[in-house]
Each structure stands twice: as structure tokens, then as C-alpha cells.
Amino acid sequence: MTSPILNPTSLLARVFAIPSLELLFNLPARMLSQDIFADPISTEPPPSQIPRRHDHPVPRLGVSSSSGPIQTNKFYGNFYLGRQTSPTYLHPYSVAWPRGSGVAGSWGLAISHVEARQRVFGPTKPQTGGAAYFINPIGIHSVCISAQELGPDTMLTTEHPTDMSVRVSLRPNVHAVPAVQFPLVQGSAFITAIFTGARPLIQTGVFFRAVTRATHGPKPNVTKYKLHLEDGAIWLLYAHHIGGPALDLRVLNNGLAQATAPFHGTIQVAKLPMDGDQREAEAIYDMSVGAYATGVTISGTARGICGTYTFIFHKSGIHSSPLIMFALPHHVESFDFATSARLTGLRLQTTTKGVATVVVADSWTMVEPEMPVEMGFLPWSPTLKRSVGQLSPARREFIRSIAHAEVSQDMDRQTNLDSMYFSGKVTYCGVFVAELMANFGAGSGKVRGDLARYP
Length: 455
Fold this sequence. Notes:
Blueprint: H1 18-25, E1 88-89, E2 94-96, E3 109-112, E4 120-121, E5 134-135, E6 143-147, E7 155-159, E8 165-171, E9 180-185, E10 191-196, E11 200-203, E12 208-213, E13 222-229, E14 234-243, E15 249-253, E16 256-259, E17 264-271, H2 278-288, E18 291-303, E19 306-317, E20 324-327, H3 329-334, H4 337-340, E21 343-349, E22 355-360, E23 363-368, E24 380-381, E25 386-387, H5 393-407, H6 411-414, H7 420-440, H8 445-452
Antiparallel strand pairs: 1-2, 2-3, 3-6, 4-5, 6-11, 7-8, 8-9, 9-10, 10-17, 11-16, 12-13, 13-14, 14-17, 15-16, 18-19, 19-23, 20-22, 21-22, 24-25
């Protein structure tokens, strides 16, 4: 280069504000090794005023006794609640245990994916012009992975529950070893089933239009099938055998394909997008088949207003295959440069989280350059990027009076409604009201006495 560049071009869009960039690149090296998620905020027991009990009103249906305490409000909760048959949302796929019901009558795990065009919208509100609500259909069992050994005595158990993953096992009966196991991780690009000698069944409640087998598999010891369904969708099925014969499916009718022999290995199912380049999507699936995630480790660092956090996926299967996972829009918006470079054109709609995009990577790193680290209990101003300051005594008393009225309700009745959604809302509101009382009534003995009467 013989002449200087006097002015920068405008081809690259601004990613971070300049002060944030300077902060990001001037972080001391020692800060990058400190994981803000490594230590809990507190390990102290609850205050003595809060009673404790050692049982729970909800039974541990099929939960491994070695799992320890089960976290609430997790994506896999439907596997141990009620009849264990409600959907579990992984985004973009959902899975459910039909328990012998539905069109297919499967005892395996049913896989579903809902396109945006399948949503049903409620009446339009005249004030806003928007729909009052929308519904994603459930009960569409596009592909079911099951085993010939499973039937009316099948038992579903869950093991190794974490924040973003769980393993589901289907046993022929309570005393049997699992016929098939499913490592489920949020964002999985494949739904993976692990077989150790059971005979696979592939079922559908949508019906097969055609089932074709590829002449040559994408990788050694991998057999590939295309499942063309009557709704126009195409699902890919890959079988990686690690012992014994390859998966050989015999189509018995338009809802059932059965393996001709017991199978040892993994069966993976993925859907081709109905919009977009299906050839590119198929090539991505072919490239990464055999690898699957079994869990996620989260780590993060923070310094000032800039923070980063990383998902490290626990990978199993064919380790030479690159891992692919679906990222949600809020992940993609925060990806660092290296992770953004691993994005692909393979995208699928989710139910409520927007369009998910496949990332070819064993880990993701997200950057939040402008965290509101000074946010406290008082109202926060996004414009000023700070709390509004002290509230006047009159406003504090007004808030306290409202909180007192709210906390005086019968919380037990309010949190046992016929809607899990609104029951949860009331529960969280009760916790928030208690926080209000503590903050705005801490100096009042009357308020403390009133609060003590409401658990």
C-alpha cells in the first residue's frame, strides 16, 4: 500500500458503541477467567419466618431417585406432570409421549414442528387491530420414534435434569431396561434416539406419502431415509449403527415402518424447511449427522457495563461431525464475531420465539455491551440509563397501600386456578408484593404485623 486511507468507509454497520468496544478490548486478562456463574449468590437457608416441609404435593412421576431436587418451571416439566403426555418445547421442535393415543397410537416419542401458517388467531381487538391471542396446534405427531418392545406397560422416566437438558427413557415395563433413550437439549437440530438392541418402529399421525432410502449414506455406517408426509413436509431420518446390521425399514402401511432386525446405535430425525433452500438445508444435516448434544455448560464474565456469556455444548456420537444447534433471535443478535461466522441459512419457525437459525459450532459466545448495572429497585429510565432517584413519601405510601391490599388476598386460592398461566402470574405477583411491602413498609410495625399473617 503506497497511500494512506484518510477516511473510513461505511460498509460495515456499527455493532457496539465505541466506549463499549474500548471497554471490551481493554479487559484485564485476569477478568476473562472469572466465571460469574461459578459461585451461587447465596447458600444461606431461608429466613426462619418461612416454614419448610420435606415432602411435595406433586408426585415424582418417573423421576430418577438420583436426580436430587427438581427445579420448577423447566421446559421438560410435562414429562413428570399429570399423565406425562403434554408437549415439551425444545424450539424449534416439540416432543410428546402419546402414550398409545393419537392417530398413530404410538408408545414412543412423537416429534412435531409447527409452521407459522398453521397458527390460529383469535378475534381482532377494535382498539388495537391486533389479534386477542394466537394458538399453535398440538397433537400433530409428524414422526414418532418407538420400539416394537413398547406397549401398554411402557414407563417413561427422566434422568439427569439440568437447566437446558434432560434424558428421557422409555422402558417396556417398570422393571425393564430402556428400549430407547432420548437426550433432549433445547435448540437441538436433530431429535436423537439411542437404541441398544430394541427393534425400532417409525410411525406418523400425518401419514407417509412416500418413504425412500438413499443409495449411499452421507457417512460410513449411516443409513439415510426421506419421509415424505401427506402435509407436504419432508423429514430426514438418519441411522448410525455401531454394531450389528444397518437400519432396514419395511413400510407396513401409511403410518408405520418397522425395522427388520434389532438395532444398536442412534436414529436422528430432522425436518427440511418448507420455505428456503432445501438442498442447502439437507447438505447441512448430512454434514453434521451422527453428532448430538447431551447438555450445556454456561459460563460468563462481566466488567463494568460489558458482559459475555458462553454456551458450551456437551457433544456425543460421531465426534468428527460438527455439532449443529438452533439459535433463537436474541442469541443471534448478541453473538460475538466468531460465533456469527458460524451461522447458516438453515432456519425453522418456533412457536413463540421467532425464527431459529442453525449454528455450526460446539460453543456460542454472546456479548452484552451495555448492561444496566446500576438498575435497582426504583423505576429505571432507559433514556437516562439510571434509576429515577428517590420516590417522594406520598408515592411510597401510595405504593405501600396498594401492596397491602394485594397481599391481603387468599394466595392459596389465587394460585390454584384452572389456568397454569394465570396461577403462575398470581404466584409471581405475590412474591413481588412481598418485596414491595419489605421496601416501602419496613419502618412500620403495623405493616410487618399484617405481612406476617399472610404466608
